[in-house]
Amino acid sequence: MHWADLLVLLPAAPYRLAAFPFAAVFHYLCASGHLSLTARYIFLLAGGCLLAGTAMGSYAVLLLIPAAGSVLVLLFVSPARAHTWVFTLQMSWQTFCHLALSSQELNTQDARPAVALSAIMLLTQKATSLALDIHEGLVSLQRGQGLLQQVLPLCSYLLFFPALLGGPLCSFSRFRAQAESCGAVPIPLRAAGQWCLGVLALQGLRVGLARGLGGRQGCASWGCLPHVWAQALPLRLAYYLHWVVDEALLEVAGFGPEAGQGDLSFPDLWTLETTHRLAVFTRTWNKSTSRWLRRLIFQRCPIQPLLATFAFSAWWHGLRPGQVFGFLCWAVMVEADYRIHPFLSARATTQGVKLLYCGTTWVFTQLIVAYILVAVETESFSMLCLLWTSCSSILPLCYGLALLLLLLCAKKPKQN
């Protein structure tokens, strides 16, 4: 895949790249003392609205409506009920947009619906995270202030341009603190340069792998798991590129995440490619979204929190057949991982057996991840059926059967 192919996988990439000069200008104006705190909020908000209009056209209205609605809820609904109202508003509107735009996204070459849906999903993350902070008392809104002083930081947080089209989730408290101190920190050119070099390296790797694996993609390649892995590899690298570009943009604007709080650091990349535990891979993949899902669903759901978390993730992503199947399969695989590895590691007593255990489970983890990723990215039900009925499903089925057997074995002592 070449640079043109990258724009197909990442339709918002040109707009993210175009935002870099504006991010650098914003940071320079802050550092030179030309922007007060109110002016910074206005700059970030105006930049977000301009970027939305440029990248989404008329679809930008679909983003501005829930943003305005969430701000009104946060201002006029009690903190005890704000989270419920914001969650209901955001997910109802997002589901409506997914249903209304999914057909246009698939049947046309227009990238604007896909960009708008991605931005709405990120807005849902920020709005529900802020509502939870208010509900738990981590953030308090000074209701005695003027309306502009209350509304401007909230709107700026929900729509600020460096994180409008991508980027790890940051809390409202951190956003406000970074906006206040942005001028005191010089532009991290070295960190941003490292991220940009990472983009070039990943794209070069994608091009090299695409040439080496040329001709193996397509429906015919779904006959076995290695070919599914080859098909999923460009998708994984596209996700890595997406996260690297986003964090580079945030760094230039002065809103870089804390150490270890971004979506992809170089240690994270090493973990994703070397871990033999699917559960570890799941916690490391898209870390800020994983933390958000854990806080929003997993820690608040009293019954089957793991299954509920993955089911909600499928809902949040759009409820296409491939997404529903892929995320529910992911939930079963993670549950199996939690039970299979203690069983196997207890029996790996010698160094040779441990090496065999780690190597085999690493291969299984990589193949299962590829299977899930291809399923999630599958856009039609017929293609999903083709994947499900192929021999690529053997390994996930084996994991599911192993989970069932281990669950039955665990219940027998209790019955006796």
Write structural notes for this entry.
It is a single chain. Helix content is 76%, strand content 0%. Helix 2 (13-31) runs antiparallel to helix 3 and helix 3 packs across helix 7. The protein has 18 helices and no strands. The protein starts with a helix and ends with a helix.
Main sheet attributes: strand count, strand direction, barrel closure: none
Measured distance between first and last alpha carbons: 59 Å
Mean of residue pLDDT? 84
How much β-strand is present in the residues?
under 5%
Instruction: Give the % helix.
Output: over 70%
Number of helices in the DSSP assignment? 18
Quick overview:
The chain has 18 helices and no strands.
Indicate the topology:
Layout: H1 3-9, H2 13-31, H3 37-56, H4 61-76, H5 79-107, H6 112-135, H7 147-159, H8 172-181, H9 189-212, H10 225-253, H11 266-274, H12 278-284, H13 287-298, H14 305-317, H15 321-345, H16 351-377, H17 381-389, H18 394-415
Keywords, separated by commas or semicolons:
single chain; 416 residues; mainly alpha; 18 helices; globular; disordered N terminus
